[in-house]
Amino acid sequence: MPLPRVLITNTVPDDILEPLRGLADVTLGPDKGLTTPRDEVLRLAPELVGILNQGELRVDAELLDHAPNLRIVANVAAGFNNMDTELMAARGVWGTNTPDTFYEATADFTLAMILAVARFLAKGDRYVRDGKWVRFEPGIWDGMLLAGKTLGIVGYGRTGEAVARRARAFGMKIVYTRRQVIDDPEYCDLDTLLKQSDFVALHVPLTDDTHHLIDTDKLAAMKPGAYLINMARGPVVDEAAMVAALQSGHLAGAGLDVFENEPQVHPDLLTMDNVVLAPHVGGGTRESRREARLLCAQNIAAVLRGERPLTPVNEAELAR
Predict the structure, then answer these.
(1) Number of Cβ within a 10 Å radius of residue 31
(2) Is the pTM of this model over 0.70?
(3) Are 117 and 159 in the same domain?
(4) What CATH number did the domain enclosing 133 receive?
(5) Structure confidence at residue 140 (pLDDT)
(6) Strand pairing partners for 275?
(7) How many CB atoms lie within 10 A of CB 37?
(8) Can you give the pLDDT at residue 79?
(9) What is the pLDDT of residues 75-90, one digit of tens each?
């Protein structure tokens, strides 16, 4: 009897496949940072029992209609807003994520973004590369010292806590907000956080409640001259409203790893020297990516053995 077929939407190292050996016939996608195009996924879908993807694959009615044998989709990501988890459960399909593998790397990148916008690193790099630097220029490149400044962290899960640990080492004061109201001197509501913070770092999942969480009114409530760091999901911020706040000077700058309509970026952001842009890579290190992919393979292997996956985001067994 042939083994069930599993698609991995990009190419992965051989050791990632170890949990699936003897359990699945694995089809790999392209390499060089590319992933299997959706039309090819749909073509393969009738044969697939499992899919391991980078979080890029939209799992919706169209895909599920093409994949009657599908039992699990494993995201190499902490987020899972690409999945219709309720519909998947109704079809008996597990969804899984990797909730603990990327937060340390994301916290590192958050501090890198804060330093980059506070000390004009991207602008200075371009200045040197363009051959404009001809003499020592004291004063004009002076940025902001982090010690004594307030970092407001919106979303205080594992990533937010890891960011706070790093920021305290720079002498920053921490305030944070989260869904659960707690008795902690560093906790405050969102409006208070925005008014107090020199830097606001976003670390919330994308949900109906957090879509455009930072809108025109919230941007206006931010401390004049503050910096916005978005390491969450692009639609958490109303991008057009943020651009307006940057153009007016109300925001001093921004560090953005995610965008509302990525990979498209608001064209005005591309012209701003006070904005640092990255291609959604905050959690991506060699170590974190390997750990996440291996966990995804283990999740698929568990389901193929008839077991519950390790990190489910729905309850597919209830529909069986």
Answers:
(1) 9
(2) yes
(3) yes
(4) 3.40.50.720
(5) 87
(6) 254
(7) 12
(8) 86
(9) 999 889 899 999 999 9
56-65 pLDDT tens trace? 899 999 999 9
* Alpha-carbon gap, residue 236 to 262, rounded angstroms: 13
Q: Is the pLDDT of residue 237 over 70?
A: yes
Q: Report residue 148 as tokens.
A: 């004594």
Catalytic residues: 233, 262, 280
Q: Which amino acid is at 106?
A: T
Mean pLDDT in residue range 34-45: 95
- Look at residues 230, 235, 203, 236 and name the one whose alpha carbon lies nearest to residue 103: 203
Q: Largest alpha-carbon pair distance within the chain?
A: 73
Same domain, 123 and 269: yes
Q: How many domains does the chain have?
A: 2
Report pLDDT for 319: 46
Tokens, residue 71:
């039992």
DSSP of 152-214, one letter per residue?
A: EEE--SHHHHHHHHHHHHTT-EEEEE-SS----TTB--HHHHHHH-SEEEE-----TTTTTSB
Identify the domain containing residue 81 by its residue range.
5-101+286-319
